[in-house]
């Protein structure tokens, strides 16, 4: 979850597995937008001696649609290359790494950034060093400073960072994947007659001690928008964002060289826009296909959004708790609220003072109205919590997307499109029991916003 | 490891050894350091069109097609349709005779 190991094929290919996408107006640089694409899920910080790195054979991209057709108008492409100083040692580093050009650092990674727009590719960052992974007090003694060195200012006024970060997405994976158990309500679960739980329990953050690899960009907003008026109510102020990873079509184990070789055109193997869409809404038999397609093709998956499987499971697993939702599901009513939130954006007139509508094309993109200023008092529940600067108006690193989407699926957002519908009392309370405070290391108040990665030495402690 | 970073192979298998070494009937894959012209059929560009910006990205990487390894995949033995991969390019070649000889060789 949000998109960690969400589909059969990509779960076998972690370096190409996109886990989360974030898009928000930068709170400390409000004339810019920050875009973050995370990859390589569920990293144990002590995972050496070959610590985690991006795939040199993977094409990573962040896409921006600024005219609402579900196709990208601007793409930022990232190509990585690993360089070994000394192939005759098994060590990642042979002494403390005190700078990005440290002679003690053996296995380093560099990357190029290309901007693609109007059919033209322009290299805007070349041979940029990634930081090392956070190993421990002897190898990476001043990690935060070291990572700061890996924030690069490149062409077009853009900042970029690519490297390890602490996982900022919080979720109780252990309970949710145990037949949709939610610990704060587990005594209400049907429990298949086993009577395992008799009282509520606190949520457990399954990602609390894990790391991830982030590609983060901070881009002047004007670089991303199409021409037009850019006020809060203007369509031209809204962008759609998603990330993809692609691999060359052929991979062959070359036993002459003792390594894999790749050949052929790049083909998309992973995609992510809104959190949890492929994870929770798309059925197993269609997940790999979904990952291979652009958002513009999402009409073919719209029925899974309009009739989410989880909406039918909640009343069955929590008997008597969701009677209104149960009636809604039995009536076969299309969930126009979810279609708007996830596939088209929310038009004006639905939520007072807010819109992130991109038009009628159904496409899973993270939609950000760039004219809405960052909140001075953010609410991690975003728009349903009265904070228009949070999910589903883009997504900030601390937004509680699990609770937001659970509540939306449970029916809390149905009145946006059907004022006569009264959500179940439980719909507004359902949660996996976690908040942003469940992220022990917290977040940064500046780019790249996700926290310093957990070190292998101290995690688990 | 990216395709661009591969050193050129110092020697490639002969056509005869390719035929001997091909691994499976039906769909057959061959990796070789030979030119596309070694197969006699007509070549066409990759059949799956790339959209928008992706087209530009693909074009960006196609320049190294002549350098690295070349992989031939017999996608449909009945029609003799081959996919030929080189660099970041793919061409489609139809050569029923070659397909028949390959499938015969691996029986």
Fold and architecture overview:
The complex is a heterodimer of chains A (461) and B (107). Chain A has one domain. Helix content of chain A is 15%, strand content 25%. In chain A, helix 6 crosses helix 7. The longest helix of chain A has 12 residues. The model of chain A has no long low-confidence stretch (mean pLDDT 97). Chain B is of the alpha+beta class and 107 residues long. Chain B has one domain. Chain B has three helices and five strands; from the N terminus they run αββαβββα. In chain B, strands 1-3-4-5-2 form a five-stranded antiparallel sheet, covered by helices on one side. In chain B, strand 4 and strand 5 form a beta hairpin. The longest helix of chain B is centred in the middle third of the chain and has 10 residues. The interface between A and B is medium-sized, with 36 and 33 residues.
What is this entry, summarized?
The complex is a heterodimer of chains A (461) and B (107). Chain A is α+β, with helices and mostly antiparallel strands.
Rg from alpha-carbon coordinates of chain B: 14 Å
Range of helix content of chain B: 25-40%
Q: Which structural class should the secondary elements of chain A be placed in?
A: alpha+beta
Q: For the report, how would you describe the main beta sheet of chain A?
A: 7 strands, antiparallel
Residue stretches of chain A low in confidence (pLDDT < 50, at least 5 long) are none
Overall geometric form of chain B:
elongated
Biggest interface and residues each? A-B, 36 and 33 residues
> How many β strands of chain B by DSSP?
5
Order of helices and strands of chain A: EEEEEEHEEHEEEHHHHHHEH
């Amino acid at each position: 979850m949000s998109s960690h190991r969400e589909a059969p094929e990509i779960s076998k290919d972690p370096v190409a597995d996109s886990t989360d996408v974030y898009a928000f107006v930068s709170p400390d640089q409000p004339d810019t937008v920050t875009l973050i694409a995370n990859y390589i899920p569920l990293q144990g910080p002590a995972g050496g001696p070959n610590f985690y790195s991006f795939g040199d054979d993977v094409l990573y991209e962040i896409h921006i649609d600024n005219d609402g057709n579900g196709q990208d108008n601007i793409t930022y492409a990232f190509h990585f290359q690993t360089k070994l100083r000394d192939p005759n040692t098994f060590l990642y580093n042979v002494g403390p790494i005190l700078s990005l050009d440290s002679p003690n650092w053996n296995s380093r990674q560099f990357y190029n950034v290309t901007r693609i727009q109007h059919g033209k590719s322009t290299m805007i960052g070349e041979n940029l060093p990634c930081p090392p992974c956070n190993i421990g007090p002897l190898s990476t003694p001043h990690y935060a400073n070291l990572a700061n060195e890996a924030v690069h200012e490149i062409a077009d006024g853009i900042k970029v960072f690519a490297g390890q970060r602490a996982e900022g997405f919080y979720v109780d994976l252990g309970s949710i994947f145990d037949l949709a158990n939610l610990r704060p309500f587990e005594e209400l679960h049907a429990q298949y007659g086993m009577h395992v739980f008799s009282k509520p329990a606190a949520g457990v953050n399954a990602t609390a001690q894990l790391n991830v690899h982030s590609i983060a960009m901070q881009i002047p907003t004007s670089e991303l928008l199409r021409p037009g008026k850019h006020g809060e109510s203007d369509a031209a102020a809204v962008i759609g964002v998603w990330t993809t990873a692609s691999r060359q079509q052929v991979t062959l184990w070359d036993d002459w060289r003792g390594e894999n070789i790749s050949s052929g055109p790049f083909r998309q193997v992973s995609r992510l826009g809104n959190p949890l869409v492929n994870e929770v809404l798309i059925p197993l038999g269609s997940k790999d296909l979904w990952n291979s397609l652009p958002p513009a093709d999402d009409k073919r998956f719209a029925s899974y959004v309009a009739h989410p499987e989880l909406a039918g499971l909640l009343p069955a697993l929590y008997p008597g708790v969701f009677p209104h939702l149960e009636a809604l599901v039995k009536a076969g009513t299309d969930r126009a609220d979810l279609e708007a939130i996830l596939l088209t954006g929310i038009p004006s007139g639905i939520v007072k003072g807010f819109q992130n509508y991109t038009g009628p094309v159904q496409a899973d993109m993270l939609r950000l109205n760039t004219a809405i200023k960052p909140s001075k008092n953010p609410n991690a529940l975003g728009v349903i919590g009265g904070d228009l600067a949070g999910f589903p108006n883009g997504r900030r690193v601390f937004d509680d997307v699990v609770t937001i989407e659970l509540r939306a699926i449970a029916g809390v957002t149905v009145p946006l499109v059907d004022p006569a519908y009264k959500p179940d009392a439980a719909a507004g309370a359902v949660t996996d029991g976690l908040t942003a405070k469940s992220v022990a290391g917290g977040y940064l108040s500046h780019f790249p916003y996700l926290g310093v990665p957990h070190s292998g030495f101290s995690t688990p402690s | 490891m990216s395709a661009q970073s591969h050193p050129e192979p110092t020697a490639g298998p002969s056509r005869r050894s390719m035929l001997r070494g091909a691994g499976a009937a039906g769909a057959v894959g061959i990796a070789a350091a030979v030119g596309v012209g070694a197969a006699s059929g007509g070549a066409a560009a990759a059949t799956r069109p790339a959209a928008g910006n992706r087209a530009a990205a693909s074009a960006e990487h196609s320049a190294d097609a002549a350098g690295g390894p070349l992989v031939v995949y017999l996608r449909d033995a009945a029609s003799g349709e081959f996919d030929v991969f080189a660099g970041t390019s793919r061409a489609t070649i139809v050569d029923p005779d070659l397909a028949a000889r390959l499938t015969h060789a691996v029986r």
